[in-house]
Amino acid sequence: MVEACLERVERLNGTINAIVTLNEQAVDDARALERSLKRGKKPGPLCGLPVGIKDVTPVAGLRTTFGSPLYKEYVPAEDALVVQRLRAAGAVILGKTNTPEFAAGGNTWNEVFGRTRNPWDPTKSAGGSTGGGAAGLVTGMIALAEGTDLGGSLRIPASFCGVVGLRPSVGLVPTYPSDWAWDTLQVTGPMARTAEDVALMLQAVAGPSPLAPLAQPAADRDFVGAVRKGIRKGLKVAYCPDIAGIGIDSDIERICREAALGLKKAGAKVEVIELDLSFARPAFLTLRGLWFVNHMQSRMDKIDQFGVNVRNNTQAGLKVTTQEIADAEAARGRLRQMFRHLFDKFDHLLTPCMAVPPFPAEQNYPETIAGKKMQTYIDWLAPTFVLSLTGLPVASVPCGLDSRRLPVGMQIVGRTQGEEGEQLGHVRLHHLPHRIPR
């Protein structure tokens, strides 16, 4: 299996640029795993599955650049906790996947490795910041992908590339090492081609650790079993087409609405609602600035060497006032209250993941949404980043192809510690073939 994935890398990665550093020991690791099985060792839940690790997550002995020229030759001495758990479950680390510098951005490119391209149309963006992981999955270079999500970094590329990405609730997958131990905005999570594969990976990496202060229990939680059960009769689902108040491409909205209403065929009750979360947009920008200052504080003497995204966000964070932080946290509390009331009536919220289709890879971000010019360059990410503020589990699942024959993803929001409810992603509403570039 590892050799088959490496053949895909050799054949396709020159076009897609998903894998930026190969683990030269991957085949040896697979052979060692085979020998241990012959000796009678019980196979782990991810036995032999090739995994791509985002290039902001340390892997011992394997170059980890963070997408930054400052770290282009950096080789960690220790595996991140999530990598330790993947190895313990029997996974084989195939290599590192491309990411923007320090995972800052919704389009995957950096000065070290260049741009990752969308396998459905290599002229288009694969999304970001876990764009390398999503593109690697679609092309069969890897079976599973590890990633992080601050404002949508697991969900945006999942939507653009037609795979499943899950932003777990805060603490379910502890993050170690981290420059901000008490970080409640960015989480570590899984990405895969199906909801069941995501659940399988989540089963292997979830659970508390003494290495990280933010955690939640995972004992007796059966994520894979939840997917296999499918949708229970009478499940109540709310669908909102534009939670962020930024507008949405009409083709994307049509496909998502059809997919949401199509859940009625599986026994769910679906209601189209209005839900205005636009008030949370300034709150995220404030807390995003605070996040960058916390994560970059040990590198402030090198701020002029950062790329434009990282430098601008860090400098913006340095200007944030205590009052602005307090206002942002108040908005975050208001969000939680709104979802508490929403979940009194519904089991899930469904909403389009992206307001725009995949745009040209050479653009850092789109210029318009549904024909209207954006107020800020980050507006197009608002449907994902306002949901990051809730701390709730949010998945992006493929729900069809637009008129351009490009994937469309829909977000599914679950209750607090409600990852088992994400089985909605298992329902195949549309056949979504993977068109591999030749």
Describe the structure.
This protein is an alpha+beta fold and 438 residues long. It is 32% helix and 17% strand. The chain is built from twelve helices and 17 strands. The chain has helices at 2-16, 26-38, 81-88, 131-138, 155-161, 195-205, 223-229, 250-262, 281-296, 308-318, 322-345, 382-388; strands at 19-22, 50-54, 92-97, 109-110, 114-115, 117-118, 121-125, 144-149, 164-167, 187-192, 236-239, 269-272, 348-352, 368-369, 372-373, 394-401, 407-413. β2, α3 and β3 form a beta-alpha-beta unit.
Strand content: 15-25%
- What's the tally of helices? 12
User: Which regions are unreliable across 5 or more consecutive residues at pLDDT < 50?
Assistant: 427-434
Q: Give the ordered list of helices and strands.
A: HEHEHEEEEEHEHEEHHEHEHHHEEEHEE
The end-to-end distance, rounded to whole angstroms, is 21 Å
Helix and strand content put the structural class at alpha+beta
Broad shape: globular
Radius of gyration: 20 Å
Q: Mind describing the biggest β-sheet? A: 11 strands, mixed
Provide the spatial order of strands within the biggest beta sheet. Answer: 1-3-2-8-10-9-16-17-13-11-12
* Total strand segments: 17
State the helicity in percent bands: 25-40%
Provide mean pLDDT, rounded: 95
Oligomer: single chain
